[in-house]
Amino acid sequence: MTYKFRNVYISDKCSLLASTKYNPIVKENVNKCIDDYYMNEKTIEIAESKYQEYTINELIKKERVDLLISGDLQNQILSSTLASSKIGLPVLGIYSACATFVEGIIIGSMFIERNKRNAIVTVSSHNLVSEKQFRFPVEYGAVRKSVNTCTATGSVSALLTNKKSNIKVESATIGVMIQTNHKDANDMGSAMAPSCATVLYNHLKETNRGPSYYDLILTGDLGIYGKEIMIDYFEKISNQKLENVIDSGSIFYKDKNVYAGASGPVCLPLIFFDYILKQKKYNKILLIGTGSMHSVISSNQKVEIPSVSHAISLEVKY
Amino acid sequence: MNKKQLIANNNDMNNEEYDKLIKKHIKEENVLKNMIISFFSGGLIGLLGEVLTNIFLKYNNLNDSYLMTFVVLIIIGSLLTGIGFFDKILSVCKCGLIVPSTGFANTMTSSAMDARSEGFIKGIGASIFKLTGSIILYGIFFGIIFGFIRSMIL
Questions:
Q1: Are residues A187 and A98 in the same domain?
Q2: B63 to chain A nearest CA, in Å?
Q3: Which bin fits A239, alpha (ψ -120 to 50), beta or left (φ > 0)?
Q4: pTM for this one?
């Protein structure tokens, strides 16, 4: 399902990187870089809401804002609700795991396309919170598999307006939920690759474009192995080769570590705003957020992991 | 638009093909190397336990010194977990640290640390045996069964 937008622009952003573990590649470029899991709060859950508060407040200072769309990985999107209760804007809470940022941009674009209003899209994630909620207790010594991903910590807010700026939201494709018979919640890349390839296929088909139309296809957090699987899967369903794919998760950490890359909703926007855009190389960029929609209960009950991906096409001028 | 049109086309993969694709890209980890590392790191813990038992034997009888060895190992495991070193040591030593009672201590302490913010009753009290509960339950269960078998045979 593809929508075209005529006057939606991303005019501003604020990014906060809250952990410098494994030396993230965006460390020098983010608006604020700290190495603090607690932010002077008692619990890590509230600390994550402080990350969101910081990035939203930085944008509110500059511009009038009518709507806040926010999401994160916690149960009942706790940190988004806590942060938005401090801000006092009309709010929509969304969840689609690591595709939350792209989903937020799509919803926000539809709101402001005809309304002459501004919207903020905010996402956040916290390494320790995700460890505790989806994997094992924080200090528990679990032996990592090579397919495991390490959740990035931080928050990103983006401001959507009708005023012209250098990043134009051109079109968006909403993905379908796809379930293969993959059950291992450690290996989210394999779970998400089919949905990523499918939304890419649908987007190209509905817009009558080839993969080479885009200078860059930036996927969310497939990881080192998931990216290769996605490329093969896409070749199988469409008979076209993909050459211009970068996966944000697999380039996120500079240091050598045991993981297959980074994950979390902040991974894609951090790499896009603070690494890809800083290179000033690509003009037509397709962002694909990939989300693995399992819960602890579903993976304990051995349910096949459903996954969803959404795509937005951006036109960037420098 | 119906479902067929949205989900790619008839080139779509079936489950077996997709499993093959995953196996092509994700290689099996080197189990043998991990096993050898665990064998030696687990053996080192065993050696430490043996040394401790021999020290305690000077002051106690055999049963008491075994118990005291366990207590000391559990205290060491919990302390290392509390100051955040256990998972770092474990990434080097692999499962050799999990199988002895140090692993038990680590599991319990880490669950308790996670639940601390939710209070003493609903947090620590309810969650401390979240992962170790199964060890205790099946430990007792099979203890009874094998104890029964042993008493029948011997």
A1: no
A2: 30
A3: left
A4: 0.91
